[in-house]
Design a protein that fits this description.
137 residues, mainly alpha, 3-stranded antiparallel beta sheet, 7 helices, extended
Length: 137
Amino acid sequence: MKFQLISGKTLEASTLNDIAFRLNIPLMDGFVDKVILPNTGMQMFFQIAIVIAEILVGLSMMGGLFTTIGSGVSLILQFMFVMTTGLYLGTFWMIFAAIAVLIGAGRTFGLDYYVMPALKKSWKRVGWARKWYLYND
């Protein structure tokens, strides 16, 4: 594992916003080089899946619905970006924003305020959830 600061410009010509932080992990680099890049079908699959995930995360954050799940997916996407292409220093704040929203920010002003009590009520009726103590009232 190696930390890198990368830029598309030369060091003298780059500004702070041109520099990206990258975490070089050999296992991830091998997966990208041997599985994703040689196969155009896999490239399209991952491109479409990431765009759809970004759109769904954005909609969940704007509506305040399933914000905990949305911020968890956002963190996963951010760490994927850090391990593959790098994350620009100007957008590094998104990791901290996702951690802040992870604790359920939509429960106050979002749709989670209305949806989560209904989901908890239906989760109480699931037999195996009660048996395995996955829901405590």
